[in-house]
Design a protein that fits this description.
Number of strands: 12
Number of domains: 2
CATH architecture of the largest domain: 2-Layer Sandwich
Strand order of the largest sheet: 1-2-12-9
Bound molecules: zinc ion
Distance between the termini: 28 Å
Helix content: 10-25%
Radius of gyration: 25 Å
Order of helices and strands: EEHEHEEEEEEHEEHEH
Largest sheet: 4 strands, antiparallel
Number of helices: 5
């Protein structure tokens, strides 16, 4: 990343097959505020597509127009960032055109449950991530007809435009200064099962040390013979809602950050 400072290490951590919407990486050599900046960029500064305007032609359902519109807004859609611009950055200057808007239609007649998959668009790449997300139930004879407009937006404006949940935790170093008396008690009371007793000696299980949450249960039980210290390394988890791949979220966030820093440098250059 330009302009900030060099981090010593970023390491991609193994992930399970069923966690394909998640990304885990270890980051070290940076300050916690920097890691938090990344978290905020991932969640708030990466654009995704969501329904913003809804025009109702007919709504006989039990829900008010506003509620149906709100529910439609929260449906995540597969987002292709190459095809759409943020309205504020579009050539049309936010008036609305094919490069910054996507029209959608929905027609349904009861009795039925209206699902996200009932929404039709002209762009085959834009599909609801969860087709079985219910919007509203219609009874016999009730109808719902509407036209909606989806636009790119940012999570800092509304959470419907957030691409993911991102969070991190700090890793710890555990030092056993002197063998404590209550070895079995420490093994049993560590909620993350990080210790074992081998040849009557308390040891840290190396593969499990990154699970430590710094709860200090071992410190309390060892009368100060165990020391747990933050390691200045963090594990970041990104859980994508599906609009973008987790790696795409990271790349886009870094691009945005670089752009913001460049803008800042340009503004600074103009100061006399
Ligand atoms: Zn436009």
């Amino acid at each position: 990343m330009r302009g900030v400072f060099k981090m010593t290490k970023v390491r991609l951590l193994r992930k399970k097959e069923k966690e394909k919407d998640k990304l885990f990486f270890e980051i070290s050599g940076v300050d916690i505020s920097y890691v938090n900046t990344l978290r905020r960029l991932f969640m708030n500064e990466v654009p995704v597509l969501a329904i913003e305007d809804v025009e109702f032609r007919k709504n006989d359902s039990g829900l008010y127009d506003e509620i149906v519109a709100h529910r439609l807004g929260l449906i995540p859609f597969k987002t292709d960032l190459k095809s759409y611009n943020l309205p504020s950055e579009c050539k049309c200057k936010g008036k609305g055109c094919g490069h910054c808007q996507l029209k959608m239609t929905l027609k349904a007649k009861g009795p039925c449950t209206v699902y996200a998959s009932n929404i039709k668009t002209k762009d085959p790449k834009v599909k609801p991530i969860y087709p079985k997300m219910p919007v509203v139930k219609l009874l016999q004879g009730q109808e719902l007809v509407l036209e909606a407009t989806a636009v790119l937006g940012l999570g800092k404006v509304h959470t419907k435009w957030s691409p993911c949940l991102a969070y991190y935790r700090e890793l710890a170093d555990i030092h056993i200064n002197k063998q404590p008396d209550n070895k079995e008690g420490i093994v049993e009371n560590c909620p993350k099962h990080i210790f074992k007793v081998k040849n009557d000696k308390l040891e840290v299980i190396k593969d499990r040390i990154n699970e430590c949450t710094l709860c200090n249960a071992c410190v309390d039980l060892s009368n100060g013979r165990i020391r747990v210290e933050p390691r200045n390394a963090y594990v970041m988890t990104i859980e994508s809602w599906g609009q973008l791949e987790p790696k795409e979220i990271v790349k886009q966030a870094i691009d945005t950050y670089n752009k913001q820093l460049d803008e800042f440098a340009d503004l600074l250059a103009k100061v006399k």
